[in-house]
Amino acid sequence: MQEVTIVGGGLAGLIAAISVAEQGGRVSLHERRPVLGGRATTKEGPYRTNFGPHALYTGPMTAWLEARDLLPARVAPAEGSFAMVWRGERQPFPPIFAAVMESLSLEAPVERDYRGWARDEIGEEAAEAAASYLSLPTFHADPGALSAAFAQWRLQRAFKADAVTYILGGWSALVEKLEARARELGVAIATGSRVTALPNGPTIVATDLPAAAGLLNKASITWPRARTALFDLAVSAEADDPVSLLDLDERVYLVRASRYDETLAPAGQQLVQGCAGIREGEGLQGAIARIEGVLDRAYQGWRKRCHWSHTAVYVGATPLDPPGTTWRDRPAVRQGEALWLIGDSVAAPGLLSEVSLASAVTAAEQAVEVARKGPRAFSEGASGALEEA
């Protein structure tokens, strides 16, 4: 059997490596950075931040991890800890969301944008509130411009009971479990290993789309992605500080991550992670100013209490399907007879990291078949886990 090569050591690459090895395949994984994890990396040091606010949605990813005893310790959001700001007023559940909740059973069309469809179904004000809420699971400044089907399904997932949990120790705790499992299965892992040319034999590319486009020399490997401003800070703790706050007016999300995991900040300090989709023509500093404005209203005196802060731009937290498109229209998982592309922006179903899971499992199944029988033994019509997900 030929060896399967995986380029990229984020969640998708690690899941693909495990999936290949579980089927008896030989596999090597190359990661250009000195550590594994990609965007799931948790920074070391006194302030242990994820790359943006991270939550693990209950669904295919948690089921896959649980089946392999790979789920790290987690904690559910504290009851009553989530609040929203709507029309300048902070409350746990703005009354306007009664209409949004009633609409969750509806199936939205692919062809229309969410804003126009939702206005017809629930009225202009409720549609605007729902679109603002969607800035959280999409990391995007204008979710109302996206496909109605894309947006509506994310609302349905977001409002499910027990929708999310937080991983204790940051997402690196998950990466460590995946790495340990991969090594246990015999995966050869090389960090600090940059791949500049495609190797011979079955190859799975698990990088972001721009890097994959360069490696595969395919300009067509592209898809709309969110640009998000990140603002992390550590403040002296005060009892009145909110735990999780989504400002629907400004489309800014704040979470006091150390409320759930005290190891993320030094004793007596609270680690707060904030994000806001960058609006058209706004730029990073404009988005940061919006986040600071929400902090001014929600975390009284935060500027004087601040011990540390950090800003960054997050590109590609999730794919964005425009009207008239679905996940099937994104860059294909199978790129050649013995070549696959996986990650969170490819033609696979799911929410956030679930796209990486679905594409990784499918690519691994197909790569093992090719490794055993040769590229022409694989049926072009087969779609494997993608159609089942």
Please give the count of helices: 13
Q: What is the H-and-E element order?
A: EHEEHEEEHHHHHEHEEHEEEEHHEEEHH
What's the rounded overall pLDDT mean? 93
Query: What ranges have pLDDT less than 50 throughout 5 or more consecutive residues?
Result: none
Helix share of residues? 25-40%
Structural class: alpha/beta
Strand order of the largest sheet: 6-5-11-12-13-10-14
- Major β-sheet profile: 7 strands, mixed
Q: Give the DSSP E fraction (strand runs of 2 or more residues).
A: 15-25%
Q: How much is the radius of gyration in Å? A: 21 Å
Strand runs, count:
16
| N- to C-terminal distance | 28 Å
Overall 3D shape: globular
Topology readout:
Elements: E1 3-7, H1 11-22, E2 26-31, E3 56-57, H2 60-67, E4 74-75, E5 82-86, E6 89-91, H3 97-102, H4 114-122, H5 124-133, H6 135-138, H7 148-158, E7 164-167, H8 172-184, E8 188-191, E9 203-205, H9 209-216, E10 225-236, E11 244-247, E12 252-256, E13 269-277, H10 284-298, H11 302-305, E14 306-319, E15 334-336, E16 339-341, H12 353-373, H13 385-388
Parallel strand pairs: 1-2, 1-9, 2-8, 5-11, 9-16
Antiparallel strand pairs: 3-7, 4-7, 5-6, 10-13, 10-14, 11-12, 12-13, 15-16
Helix pairs in contact: 1-8, 1-12, 4-5, 4-7
Describe the structure.
The chain has about 400 residues and is an alpha/beta fold. It is about 30% helix and about 20% strand. It is built from 13 helices and 16 strands. It has helices at about 10-20, 60-65, 95-100, 115-120, 125-135, 135-140, 150-160, 170-185, 210-215, 285-300, 300-305, 355-375, 385-389; strands at about 5, 25-30, 55, 75, 80-85, 90, 165, 190, 205, 225-235, 245, 250-255, 270-275, 305-320, 335, 340. The strands form three sheets. The chain has a seven-stranded mixed sheet with strand order 6-5-11-12-13-10-14. The chain has a six-stranded mixed sheet with strand order 8-2-1-9-16-15, with helices on one face. The chain has a three-stranded antiparallel sheet with strand order 3-7-4, with no helix packed on it. Strand 15 (about 335) and strand 16 form a beta hairpin. Helix 1 (about 10-20) packs parallel to helix 12 and helix 4 crosses helix 7. The longest helix has 21 residues, at about 355-375. The relative contact order is 0.19. The mean pLDDT is about 95.
